[in-house]
């Protein structure tokens, strides 16, 4: 199974939205929110974007304090790690004013509200586009605060996996033609998540190779083992 | 000794040895025409080696970021984004081949930029694939993948240091400074003799 990033509708929507947010002349500069449940391809899409462009990518670890957040951001920008929040913020603002770069904050739902407010301050002071990526909690957190929500100019939802995604993934990653009924069965099994789908497709690819099959039928998918079977007494 | 062949190289050596330079001062010291001075200052300012800090006053920048090959830059960015990665992860993100990434990884590992971080089952084929992560040295390198540091010629540095010791009067006031000056003079003589032989 080849490692690929599928250009799904959500990925296309993300690219279009970020273009609007980054365009300070004709677009709508502001905060962008990318939200969706885990395994929907948010992080993969953002990682790819961060590799292609000069954007600053920050991964938020669990229970990250605002001071640690500013330190991490400062370190990412110029290698310094000031102990004081005010100092770190000043350096960040200076660096971003010199070379404006988009801020991509992955797992932003793990941030406390103070952390998000610090990021809003930086966004207000420098005008750089801020992209917050996280689980649906981030949407609620921002929506409930008018001061933050009024600055959000674009939102992109990473919804569940679709049948088209499954057919496309089968074709591009495994060179297999997944029939509509088999795709439906896979969709039922993966519950909209790319991770279980990836494991199932991997198993299917091995079976297809062993039996010299090029088209995937529903029977083959139904024969796959249940990975999360409850222990029987 | 690498000889300064053109006015820009002469100015580079002079600025690297003196840190802060004035246009007029350089003109007299290096015996260059006004056109040569203007051209050399413009060239070094464009490459980022000199920054203007005042009227006719310029500061030497010891390290500058040189442009990097696009794929290499993408590979460094991808390594920075992914905290733990395999060669196939980076190849996918940087849109290059696994073989090329693995070749670079061997070099980076030897240089201490990345280190092993376990292994996992690959997406393609059997066995396991090695996982890596950036070291602190690697994280710093990832921020500025291609830094170029210019070191002035040792003979130039010796001459400048001797000049400083003599002009500041230290050679007269302090015996240790006088000894240093003698040592520098000997080094200069040796170097000049070698050049004459060559």
Give a summary of the structure in a few sentences.
Chain A is an alpha/beta fold. Chain A has helices at residues 9-22, 42-52, 66-78, 85-98, 113-126, 136-143, 146-149, 163-174, 180-190, 194-210, 218-222, and strands at 31-35, 56-59, 103-106, 130-134, 152-157, 177-178, 215-216.
Defining key terms:
heterodimer, A: 233 residues, alpha/beta, 5-stranded parallel sheet, two-stranded parallel ribbon, 11 helices, B: 198 residues, alpha+beta, 3-stranded antiparallel sheet, 58% helix, elongated
Can you give a write-up of this model?
The complex is a heterodimer of chains A (about 230) and B (about 200). With about 230 residues, chain A is α/β, with parallel strands linked by helices. Chain A has helices at about 10-20, 40-50, 65-80, 85-100, 115-125, 135-145, 145-150, 165-175, 180-190, 195-210, 220; strands at about 30-35, 55-60, 105, 130-135, 150-155, 175-180, 215. The longest helix of chain A has 17 residues, at about 195-210. The two termini of chain A are about 35 Å apart. Chain B is α+β, with helices and mostly antiparallel strands and about 200 residues long. In chain B, about 60% of the residues lie in helices and about 15% in strands. Chain B contains ten helices and eight strands. Chain B has helices spanning about 5-20, 25-30, 35-45, 70-80, 85-95, 100-110, 135-145, 155-165, 170-175, 175-195; strands spanning about 20, 50-55, 55-60, 65, 85, 115-120, 130-135, 145-150. In chain B, the strands form three sheets. Chain B has a three-stranded antiparallel sheet. Chain B has a three-stranded antiparallel sheet with strand order 5-7-6. In chain B, strand 2 (about 50-55) and strand 3 (about 55-60) form a beta hairpin. Chain B is elongated. The model of chain B has no long low-confidence stretch (mean pLDDT about 85). The interface of A and B includes residues 3, 48, 50 and 202 of A.
């Amino acid at each position: 199974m080849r490692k690929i990033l599928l250009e799904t509708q959500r990925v296309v929507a993300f690219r279009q939205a970020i273009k609007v947010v980054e365009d300070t002349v004709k677009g709508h500069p502001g905060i962008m929110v990318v939200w969706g449940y885990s395994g929907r391809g948010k992080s993969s899409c953002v990682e790819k974007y961060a590799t292609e462009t000069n954007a600053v990518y920050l991964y938020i670890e669990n229970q990250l304090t605002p001071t640690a957040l500013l330190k991490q951001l400062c370190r990412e920008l110029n290698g310094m790690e000031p102990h004081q929040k005010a100092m770190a913020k000043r350096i960040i603002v200076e660096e971003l004013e010199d070379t404006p770069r988009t801020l991509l904050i992955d797992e932003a739902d793990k941030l406390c509200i103070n952390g998000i407010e610090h990021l809003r301050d930086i966004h207000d002071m420098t005008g750089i586009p801020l992209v917050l990526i996280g689980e649906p909690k981030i949407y609620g957190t921002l929506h409930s605060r008018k001061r933050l929500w009024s600055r959000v100019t674009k939102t992109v939802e990473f919804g569940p996996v679709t049948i088209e995604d499954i057919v496309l993934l089968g074709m591009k990653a495994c060179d297999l033609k997944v029939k509509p009924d088999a795709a439906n069965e896979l969709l039922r099994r993966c519950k909209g998540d790319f991770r279980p789908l990836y494991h199932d497709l991997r198993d299917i690819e091995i079976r297809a190779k062993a039996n010299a099959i090029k088209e995937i039928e529903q029977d083959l998918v139904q024969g796959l083992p249940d990975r999360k079977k409850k222990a029987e007494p | 000794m690498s000889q300064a062949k053109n006015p820009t190289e002469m100015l580079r050596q002079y600025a690297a040895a003196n840190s802060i330079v004035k246009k007029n001062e350089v003109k007299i010291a290096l015996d260059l025409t006004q056109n040569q001075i203007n051209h050399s200052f413009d060239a070094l300012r464009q490459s980022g080696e000199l920054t203007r800090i005042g009227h006719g006053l310029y500061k030497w920048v010891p390290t500058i970021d040189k442009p990097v090959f696009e794929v290499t830059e993408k590979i460094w960015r991808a390594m920075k984004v992914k905290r733990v990665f395999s060669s196939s992860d980076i190849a996918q993100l940087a849109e290059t081949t696994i073989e090329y990434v693995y070749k670079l990884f061997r070099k980076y590992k030897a240089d201490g930029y990345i280190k092993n971080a376990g292994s996992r089952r690959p997406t393609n084929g059997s066995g396991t694939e090695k996982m890596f992560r950036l070291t602190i040295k690697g994280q710093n390198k990832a921020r500025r993948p291609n830094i170029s540091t210019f070191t002035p010629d040792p003979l130039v540095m010796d001459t400048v240091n001797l000049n400083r010791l003599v002009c500041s009067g230290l050679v007269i006031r302090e015996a240790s400074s006088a000894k240093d000056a003698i040592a520098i003079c000997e080094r200069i003589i040796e170097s000049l003799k070698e050049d004459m032989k060559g």
